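hey so i finally got around to running both of the ones u sent me last week. sorry it took forever, my laptop kept dying halfway thru and i had to restart like 3 times lol. anyway pasting them below in the order u listed, first the sequence line then the structure token line for each. didnt double check formatting much so if smth looks off just lmk and ill redo it

first one:
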Amino acid sequence: MVYLMREKEILLISDLHDSVSGLRKLKEWCQNSTFDLVLSAGDLTSTPNPNQIKALKTILSLLPQNVPFLGIAGNNEREETIAWMKEQNLFLEEKKLFGLRFVGISGWGEDIPQISEPFDQKTILITHVPPKNFPRGRIETEKFKNQPKMHFFGHLHHDFFERKIGDIRVIHIPSLLLGKGLVLTLPNFKIKTLD
């Protein structure tokens, strides 16, 4: 007997920067969703915001009940915000879900977490900044021992685009500030844009 996994939908967001219109979009998507996980590539808040934790709590309140949220820090999250995310088990460094391993690299790419095993075709990498061979890129993916299946990133505030670097699908998450996001469907790794 063959058991087929039910399709899983992962909402990918990045770069909200405290946008009220972006929050409205997120609420709209979540009201009509079947998401199984929400992943953030950082900068959901902005550096000048003195109430980043309160802003994150507002974002979390919009998500469907019982849907896990995992995120990394962008270049705008403050140390106390990152500490709070870690305390709440919301901070992504390495997590296994749905038969895959999700690895997060925060900030400018300087904080590479200790991972349990090399990347493989069951690894999805989430970073804030793009790979080094993109504009404003800093992540040197070619230096990793093995390559992940997919590499998602934000930071650029552009529309969705996808490229190949070697065997890796490298995908830009469009900015929630612009009212855009992505849905990754498993197990077929199909990408759909939201706006």
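and the second one:
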Amino acid sequence: MKTLCVVPCGKRKIWDKEDKAKSGAAAAKDAYTGAYSRKCKEYAEIFYPRNWCILSAKYGFVFPEELIPGPYNVSFNDKKTCPITIDALVQQIRQKELDDVEKVVVLGGKSYSAIVEKAFQGKTIINPLANCRGLGYMMHKINEAIKDKKAL
């Protein structure tokens, strides 16, 4: 059974740092620099080393080595920023050959998980952080899993 881990992108990006502001493209795994995003990537690299991706509100499902062209500020929570649509995500799933995935583990909040669930309709979606009350609880749970070497 093939499982995919989907991690969130995050608002903070490599281009937010003054010395990187004028630099060009960055690998997706390096582009998102927020503490939560970094922790989720660490978790994915440990427990799903060959089967993880980042869900970007602008670019959709991106693999760790895919290049993100440069700075942007798009959010699923702000429709005015024109986030990627569910239809586009479904199309990406086919294009990136993710449609053979049977289970999807989502490291994000309920609204983030709902987007993944709509895109991967008919697949088993697991959100081990769904009952966490906030980012701090989520970080703690991920840290414990990494420390104990036990997937969530």
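quick thing i noticed on the 2nd:
Strands lie at 3-8, 26-27, 52-56, 60-62, 67-68, 103-106, 124-126.
anyway thats it, ttyl
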